[in-house]
Amino acid sequence: MTIKATYPNLPWDNQVVHKARIAVQKPKSEEEFWAYYILRRISIYFSILFSRLPFPFSSPNFITILGIISMLLATGLVITGSKVGLLIACLLYQVGYLFDCIDGEVARLTNNCSRLGKTLDMILDGAGVILLFGFAFASFSGRLGARLSLFWFLFIIFSGLFGFAIPRLLGISKITTRERHSSVILDIISFLISPPGLYTVLLIPILFGVAITFLLKTYSVGLSIKTLIKVWLIVQDRILPQHK
């Protein structure tokens, strides 16, 4: 297969970029929908740039910290409840996710992987969950229009914690296209009930001034179901075969 058939790519990629993609990125079958189709296509350019800069800019940990800051700033903006703040928060999430892609690529390009890096990467993932809590709190307090009931507020908190903790305890954090059997429909569904999908779709009701409580409820239910599917995949692939 050619590079374009398996790895993220852009029409203007040169040989340096092609080689870097093969060295530090994953093929489509091992990558998440949003990362493969959007973020990884541009992240490699930033990764090459950062890897050539002096310390601390070339440090993967520095890049991860930038991602954490982006997520925390987004949470602060959400809690204010302003329309502009919400829009910027959704965009800052994407910036934070982009940094999450870049830090690992830079670590592999510079052969600079560490335990601290893995810890910071987990904190960055956790900061994304805190952003969800920020939306839930702002909705519960009535700052985003229609109020969330206490039940739904607690359910969103639970689904966020459940979706973050359980897969990591089982050694997984993403469902790849391989595990979805490369189904376009399942790709789209999985995207819509993922954080990138939520913060992309949320832009629509925010722009038009529509309450977002329905989307938060739908997302939390979908996230819980997706987490249960992840658990079942692990049980099916790793645990059940041992008892045959």
Please describe what this structure looks like.
Belongs to the CDP-alcohol phosphatidyltransferase class-I family. Keywords: Membrane, Transferase, Transmembrane, Transmembrane helix. InterPro entries: CDP-OH_P_trans, CDP-OH_PTrfase_TM_dom, CDP_ALCOHOL_P_TRANSF_CS. The chain has 244 residues and is mainly α. The chain has a single domain, classed as CDP-alcohol phosphotransferase transmembrane (TM) domain (Four Helix Bundle (Hemerythrin (Met), subunit A)). The protein contains 11 helices and no strands. The protein has helices spanning 3-6, 15-24, 33-52, 60-80, 83-109, 115-140, 150-169, 184-192, 195-201, 203-208, 213-239. It starts with a helix and ends in a 5-residue tail after the last helix.
Integer-rounded radius of gyration: 19 Å
Q: How many E-type strands?
A: 0
The CATH architecture can be given as Up-down Bundle
Mean pLDDT: 85
Secondary-structure element order, as H and E?
HHHHHHHHHHH
Contiguous helical run count: 11
Helical residue percent? over 70%
At the fourth level of CATH, the homologous superfamily is CDP-alcohol phosphotransferase transmembrane (TM) domain
CATH-defined fold name = Four Helix Bundle (Hemerythrin (Met), subunit A)
The description of the largest β-sheet is: none
Structural class: mainly alpha
**Which residues form runs of ≥5 with pLDDT under 50?**
176-180
